[in-house]
From TrEMBL, chain A:
<dbReference type="Pfam" id="PF01796">
    <property type="entry name" value="OB_ChsH2_C"/>
</dbReference>
<dbReference type="InterPro" id="IPR022002">
    <property type="entry name" value="ChsH2_Znr"/>
</dbReference>
<dbReference type="GO" id="GO:0003677">
    <property type="term" value="F:DNA binding"/>
</dbReference>
<feature type="domain" description="ChsH2 C-terminal OB-fold">
    <location>
        <begin position="209"/>
        <end position="273"/>
    </location>
</feature>
<dbReference type="Pfam" id="PF12172">
    <property type="entry name" value="zf-ChsH2"/>
</dbReference>
<feature type="domain" description="ChsH2 C-terminal OB-fold">
    <location>
        <begin position="69"/>
        <end position="132"/>
    </location>
</feature>
<dbReference type="InterPro" id="IPR012340">
    <property type="entry name" value="NA-bd_OB-fold"/>
</dbReference>
<feature type="domain" description="ChsH2 rubredoxin-like zinc ribbon">
    <location>
        <begin position="173"/>
        <end position="205"/>
    </location>
</feature>
<protein>
    <submittedName>
        <fullName>DNA-binding protein</fullName>
    </submittedName>
</protein>
TrEMBL record, chain B:
<dbReference type="InterPro" id="IPR016039">
    <property type="entry name" value="Thiolase-like"/>
</dbReference>
<dbReference type="GO" id="GO:0016747">
    <property type="term" value="F:acyltransferase activity, transferring groups other than amino-acyl groups"/>
</dbReference>
<feature type="domain" description="Thiolase C-terminal">
    <location>
        <begin position="250"/>
        <end position="369"/>
    </location>
</feature>
<dbReference type="Pfam" id="PF22691">
    <property type="entry name" value="Thiolase_C_1"/>
</dbReference>
<dbReference type="InterPro" id="IPR055140">
    <property type="entry name" value="Thiolase_C_2"/>
</dbReference>
<dbReference type="InterPro" id="IPR002155">
    <property type="entry name" value="Thiolase"/>
</dbReference>
<protein>
    <submittedName>
        <fullName>Acetyl-CoA acetyltransferase</fullName>
    </submittedName>
</protein>
Amino acid sequence: MPSEELIADHVLEFPGGYTRTTGPVIGRFLTELRDGRIVGVRTAGGRTLVPPLEYDPDTGEAVTGEFAEVGPAGTVESWAWVSEPRKGHPLERPFAWALIRLDGADTALVHAVDAGDARAMRPGLRVRPRWRAERTGHITDIESFVPEVTRIVSPVRAEYRVKPGKSLARFLEGVERGIFLGCRCGSCGKVYVPYRLSCPECGVAITEEVELPDTGTITTFAINNLPDPRAPQVPFVSAYILLDGSDIPMIALVGDIPAHEVRQGMRVRAVWVPEEERTASMSNIRWFAPTGEPDAEL
Amino acid sequence: MGNRCAVIGVGQTHYTTKRRDVSIAGLVREAAVRALEDAGLTWKDIDAVVIGKAPDLFEGVMMPEAYLADALGAAGKPMMRVHTAGSVGGSTALVGASLIQGGVHDRVLVVAFEKQSESNATWALSTHLPFSASLVVGAGGYFAPHIREYMRRSGAPDHIGTLVAVKDRLNALKNPYAHLRIPQISREMVESTPMLWEPIRYLETCPSSDGACAMVLSSEKAVTGTPAWVLGTAMRSEPIFRAGRDTVNPQGGKDCAADVYRQAGIADPRRDIDVAEVYVPFSWYEPMWLENLGFAAEGEGWKLTESGATALDGDIPWNASGGVLSSNPIGASGLIRFAEAALQVRGMAGEHQVDGARRALGHAYGGGAQFFAMWMVGSDKP
Ligand SMILES: [Zn+2]
């Protein structure tokens, strides 16, 4: 039997942590951070370095002793999205590491941007620091940067109590009994379904009620492939169905046939839900299904 | 027709999916300022403001005209809102023109907009009231059966809709304001996109855009710069539910066209009109409206499309700007048609200018193809 491999954990950590003497330039930057301000340092050439450096990387000269407040807002120049933050990262949720050029600065600062979603990140995104309440003079005094407010959500909700009205109520009474009620205009003789009280062509009141059969002809239709939570499952066929004896088509669902076999001119009949399930609603009609008769001339 | 009226300024925003950098007020302001600049005028030169947009459910702002009065410099001036569904942009221009033609005002600012990215048009168009079945989903769901019926009646081959989808997107490449810019657009590309509401494919439909368009309309004595003269104006409507209503070739559209042609002295639209900006939100509506507007006999519209007559280099270019198929801030879409017609006869359409255009048709329709608005504009004073 082979001997077990020898493994042991070992931690190397200077007790209490190393110190870092900041020097006057970095020290000023961190002191200002603790006060909730961000400053950069000017170079002899007039550039403002943020975060500050002690020596100008362009010339090797010492920077000037002049500090300038920058930001607090800035612009994202580039970023990398962190979809699975690790221990030690500034945020526990997905975030971006970004190069942020603060307003008034000539260089970019690396920091986290709490944007919620990678799609919210783009070059030019305007961001602002989110400060910690308790600050110690550390770069993490800025918890992260967050995008500026560019959009709010404005919930609008209107609640109604809807009554069907006299004519629709009458039509639904018929539907509850399993029949389609229409009406005939006394002036032009056209038969309308659903039942209505006036003629849209003549403008006169309609008084003659007509009972229509539940058979008809598909005049035209669409095959709907776009899912919508309020509509039937796709693909569904919404068809204009001219009930026998009526002069205006109704829009209804076509079923019991694959969508691509539906034809203009196809003869159909309403498929009703069982009598015990019926209410005063169009949901009494499951759909219209082919009768098997020869197609009608359109 | 009343007093003479001219378009003396046109302003548009760049149409795009999401204008996240401006509020609705900022959006309409941008178009209005550009129209004023084009006319060489300032806010104080405007007598009245007419604004149009789709129904309030689109952005959920009740009576946006009230909130937008400041942005449009309307304080102390008459301001009104026009409502005619998708044709509203056209109707807005015509209400503005009527204030000039009637001698009420000398300079009217007309503005229309939509900021579709603030909600969802399909949701706004399908409110699904209780007691009825929830079947029609959005404009595509509504218009698809009528397109199918056109195809059956006319015997048009399936690829006609594809041709329009390609042609209008090619035109859009010449229009810096257009939303959809697809340099590699081709029949194969359109045909490879899915059927959303069969027979309508994805690339045969209009996009959903944010944008605004504005025009400064003027009386004859107040004209500045280069005018496009209004030669005729007409609106018609018809009830959506009426027995015997022809939803493929609506009577309201025919009557509206006949009226505007009579005023403008157009005997043969294909011969007498140089360019048309027509509301074509689904590609098949080009052949359908070619017939409805008298550019082709009934059942023959698709042949005109197929022959290339409606292309930018054809004898009767339709939608040189790229049309609604390329940019669709719904409430503004009609006004854009009217404004593009004006730009053409002013010779200011840029890369999509139709050479020597002297007479142009602007057209809009809305609702269930039940509202129509049209105007004829020309380079010569009527
Ligand atoms: Zn009648």
